[in-house]
Amino acid sequence: MNAIAPPPVYSARIVPALQRIQHEFGYLKRENLEQAALDLDVPLHRLQAVASFFPHFRLSPPKKIVLGICRDMACHLAGAPAMMEELQSLAGENVEIKGVSCLGRCDRAPAACVATAGVEHEAHYLGRPAGKLREIVESYLRGEAPPPDLDAGQGYSASNFVINTYGEKSPDYAAVLKAIAVRDTALEAAGQILASKPNWTRARLEQFRRAALNRLTSDECPDAKIGQAVMAWGTDSDWAQGPTLGGWSETVLQEFKEADLRGMGGAGIPSIQKLRDVRDAIRRARRRQTDSRGFIVVNGDESEPGTFKDRELLLHLPHLIVEGVIIAGLITEATQGFIYIRHEYAEQIAACQAEIGRAEQLGLCGQDAYVLGRPFPISVFVSPGGYICGEQSALIEAMSDRRGEPRNLPPKLETNGLEDLPTIVSNVETCAWIPYICLKGGRTYAELGVNGWQGRRLFSVSGDVKRPGVYEVPMGMTVRELLHGENYCRGIIGDRKLKAFAPSGPSGGFLPAKLTARAGLPRDHVNNKAWIELAKRRGFDPAATELDILDLELELNLFRALSPTQALGAGLVVYAEDRDMADQAVNAMEFYRNESCGKCVPCRLGSQKMASLGAHLLSNEIEAARWKNELLPLVRDLSKAIEMASICGLGRSVPVPLRCVVNYFESDITRHLSPSSAPVPQPAT
Fold it and tell me: CB burial class (10 A; 0-12, 13-18, 19+) of residue 157?
């Protein structure tokens, strides 16, 4: 058989070109943009459209030193607003002081970064008081760059996480080899069936095997019979139908079904559903003899305030992510993989690139993946920034050299993603669990849970806890154990009482320390099955009218049943008894205003109106009577309009923080209201 041309490899062009220009000059010079447009053979306005959208790109020369201070959630709690005000005296001809959105270092708040011309990635300085940051800026002005704080030196024992199925051993990609063995056994069985047919010589069988592995079309096969056989094998049809032949991937997928592995991005979609959808879409394309490429994309954008667990997986366990991508590519017959990482994660980018190189040397990915049996290139896509790119369709738009604006769905990405072809967008952690499940079995993973729940996952915890960090916990463990357990957060700073708990960054709102029948618990909660079962496990009266939030078990389905916001994400933020939750809600709304992509009017204007209202509230400019009679009804109507009409989850999350404070922390709003100054009406004479 002649050498087969590999399928076309997709590579973004505009975003990498802009990143190269900015790295060299510190900003996007007009003449360089014009030259890049000529080199790429695209209109200049396309480069300008992309450059003007992403916060990482600068269209004018920056100051010599740009100090950015994170202003969200944990950093806000740690005094970022006061630091910003104190450090403004440094601003001048050579120094810019600005607030930035979450840097993903919430465990070492307040987080700051320094950008200088000619340096690709910012240097991070974490947990430093204003005085230390002042000294750092002054050192930069003298031409001395103080050593930055690295993620690698934080002492996380990720190698001891259960998710790392290799433990201290050098990862040998045994999970990929096991999946390859399943495929090859099925391919051998197919060869035995063909060998029983007339004219199927040993040479023709070998041609079939190579053509099947390389996903050849009928036209590319040596003859029609081989083409027909490859089509049957590649589409799980005709004589090759079934899990022992062309449908071999079902054998592997069955383990994911038993594991009940779900996406960690918030929606909790079963991973088996996405894998099957992409596999089936690729099969349909092969039947139609159209472009049958497909893509596996790992979403390492992780820009949700309070969330930083993927940071540790990407840095310490990149082999799990790379292996998960390869296995997903095997199962679905996808042709290319990407790990999408936010540009603030420089160490993580380097770690993943190095691991991809190692996997290529082992023959498991790349254009010459000889162990895999076909080309399967994997690369890192460095995000140019923006919280909105955590939304999977916006992420695909960014990878497609367009503004990172969410798509109007349908169609789904599983059928029409990157290059309008079948695409899986998977959370980092979901991908990283794939090797464990392949090697040890879905049932073994499911049995890692406690209190009747299944599986295990990682949480980022920050805020007012003694030991913030990344913790891998069994699903079903109580909030109490995570926040107060000796092996976990060890309680609240100063041994204060818990006031509020954010279960999913700002998008999950703020839960009070106690949910009551009047505020927080679902209607008719005593007849709620989830409530009754929780009461039995935790040992409280099922007729109780309140629930200590610490007794809630960490499991998405339970939070959906009993939590008023129905959210359980990866970023958990803790607030002690003396915190002003109105201030926290306004901070969250300002985050959404800053990060709104602006594509849809409800989110663009609604987030601005909500943040503006919050600023007036905190400035004590709103009278109590006006708040009650005029503004509160307006807020409710505006919230409903934003939620119903916004394109993506960012817009739908905008009203959640303020709604929670209105419902559960009324006194924190009242303290900011001024007494009514309206004159008392006089009786008619």
Answer: exposed
CA atoms within 13 A on the CB side of 259: 28
Amino acid in the structure at residue 244: T
Structural domain including 383 reads 174-439
Q: Is 420 left (phi over 0), alpha (psi -120 to 50) or beta?
A: left
The answer to whether residues 115 and 182 belong to one domain is no
How much is the pLDDT for 680?
42
Gap between the Cα atoms of 356 and 364, Å rounded: 9
Query: 10-residue block means of pLDDT along the chain (685 residues)?
Result: 75 96 92 97 96 94 95 97 96 95 97 89 96 97 94 75 91 97 97 94 95 92 94 96 96 96 81 96 96 97 96 96 98 98 97 98 96 96 94 96 94 97 97 97 97 96 97 97 96 98 96 96 95 96 96 96 94 97 98 95 95 96 95 95 94 96 96 73 46
Number of Cβ within 10 Å of residue 528's Cβ equals 17
Say what the pLDDT of residue 120 is.
Answer: 83
Question: Which of 499, 436, 448 minimizes the C-alpha distance to 474?
Answer: 448
Asked if 602 and 566 sit in the same domain, the reply is: no
CATH number of the domain where residue 283 is located: 3.40.50.11540
Rounded to whole angstroms, the Cα distance separating 483 from 538 reads: 17
Residue 8 lies in a domain: no
Co-location of 641 and 664 in the same domain: yes
In the three-class reduction of DSSP (H, G, I as helix; E, B as strand; rest coil), residue 465 is classed as: strand
Find out whether 470 and 312 touch, Cβ atoms under 8 Å: yes
Q: What are phi and psi of 640, to 5 degrees?
A: -65, -40
pLDDT of residue 157: 64
In a shared domain, residues 383 and 418: yes
Q: Is residue 401 part of a domain?
A: yes
Q: CATH number, domain at 46?
A: 3.40.30.10
Q: How far apart are CA 257 and CA 270, in angstroms?
A: 8
In the block, tokens 């004479």 appear at 685
What are the structure tokens assigned to 614, written together?
């919050």
Amino acid letter for position 664: Y
- List Cβ neighbours of 89 (8 Å cut-off, separation of 6 or more): none
Q: Which of 431, 445, 439 shows the shortest CA–CA distance to 323?
A: 431
